[in-house]
Write a structure and sequence with these properties.
heterodimer, A: 160 residues, alpha+beta, Porin, 8-stranded antiparallel β-barrel, 2 helices, 8 strands, 19% helix, elongated, B: 218 residues, mainly alpha, 2 domains, globular
Chain lengths: 160, 218
């Protein structure tokens, strides 16, 4: 076999073996499981926004954020600042006095997926979520929970 | 009897020293990680990703060069980023070892010597120059200098096992390190690419697999 083909075969075997190893060894991190239900895109939370204080469930670190609902879409101001997530569609369902919502948002420039699940009542908002980064060589996840109350409009912090 | 007792106590002492070194190294790695404060947050993940990619490329390149202690970069990355990075370190180690082997096997030996000399890697160039004077099948014995004839014969007969042992032996940097060993294996022409690849896949697996599966947290 010509040398160039041998080199190619070694490179192919090494990279193929590496890819297979990554597939087998890299642990899978599932996103937050959102309870099933009669979810609909009724835009029940449009025009509202909430300041929340949350906690990273693994490190205990405090996180603050503002969640915005507008025109059938949802945005986390922090996600927008970190990775230009933009607005993403959200869904709602009504259970008793609470409006539950969920949204899955993705960064366009990096493999970040954030899954949100929360409920809004007259008293405020409770929210939980996962920020999962799935690189080809590892996956990393931040699990968080938080609560908050209605925020005053601050259009300067909200971006399309 | 006295000699046996002395031998046993000496062995226990060495074992205790080894365990102490491992404990101290783990403790030191914890301190380094805490000092670096490399907690991955949404705000720094992309910077961490760039650091990891740069580190991996440097690791592959340096580990493939004879006498360059590239393994320390891998250990530093494990210390900094934890067990999650173990698969990448494993794959990068295999790639680096195969790179060194491929360079040794296919690059003309005098060209390799000149290249290393031009890069001012004098010890690596001297190693290749010594190997150039020998027949290809004798080149691997450069790595077994000072061994008895019987050891040489066993080493050559079970050369793939010897190769696996050599790349895993602590302190192998004095005979060229992982990169030097693999380059010599390539230069010798007695190691087939496929068998060498399988050998390396198995040989470099213990540390990353231990970190990944047994949760040795740095």
């Amino acid at each position: 076999m010509p040398q160039i083909l041998q080199i190619g075969a070694i490179a192919l075997a090494t990279l193929g073996g590496g890819a297979a190893t990554m597939t087998v060894m890299k642990p899978e991190l599932p996103d937050l499981t959102v309870p099933a239900g009669n979810w609909s895109a009724e835009n029940l939370l449009d025009g509202t926004s909430f300041d929340i204080v949350g906690t990273d469930l693994d490190s205990g670190q405090e996180m603050t954020d503002t969640l915005v609902f507008r025109d059938g879409a949802f945005q986390s101001v922090n996600c927008q600042a970190y990775c230009d997530f933009g607005f993403s569609a959200y869904q709602t369902k009504v259970v008793g006095d609470a409006v539950h919502f969920t949204a899955t948002t993705r960064c366009p420039d990096a493999p970040h997926t954030v899954v949100w699940y929360g409920s809004v009542t007259e008293d405020g908002i409770e929210v939980a979520g996962t920020w999962t980064t799935r690189r080809w060589y590892w996956s990393h996840q931040i699990r968080f929970e938080g609560d908050g109350s209605t925020a005053l409009p601050d259009h300067a912090a909200i971006s399309d | 009897m006295v000699a046996t007792k002395f031998g046993a106590s000496s062995l226990i002492l060495r074992f205790v020293i080894l365990i102490s070194i491992l404990v101290l190294a783990t403790w030191g790695a914890h301190l380094v990680r805490d000092a670096l404060n490399l907690e991955i947050r949404p705000g720094n993940e992309q910077a961490v990703h760039r650091m990891i990619m740069s580190g991996a490329v440097a690791y592959i390149g340096l580990l493939a060069v004879p006498f360059v202690p590239g393994a320390e970069i891998g250990i530093a990355m494990l210390a900094a980023f934890g067990a999650g990075i173990a698969p990448l370190i494993y794959v990068a180690t295999v790639v680096s070892m195969m790179l060194a082997y491929t360079v040794g096997r296919f690059l003309p030996i005098h060209a390799l010597e000149r290249l290393l000399a031009r890069m001012r890697m004098r010890r690596a160039a001297a190693l290749v120059a010594r190997a150039a004077l020998l027949a290809p099948e004798e080149r691997v014995t450069v790595l077994l200098q000072g061994r008895s004839e019987k050891s040489l014969q066993i080493g050559l007969r079970y050369r793939y096992a010897a190769l696996a042992l050599a790349v895993n032996t602590p302190g192998n940097s004095i005979i060229g390190g992982g990169g030097g060993i693999m380059m010599m294996a390539g230069l010798s022409g007695i190691f087939s690419p496929l068998a060498t690849f399988v050998t390396i896949i198995l040989a470099v697996s213990p540390v990353p697999l231990a970190v990944l599966f047994f949760g040795l947290q740095f």
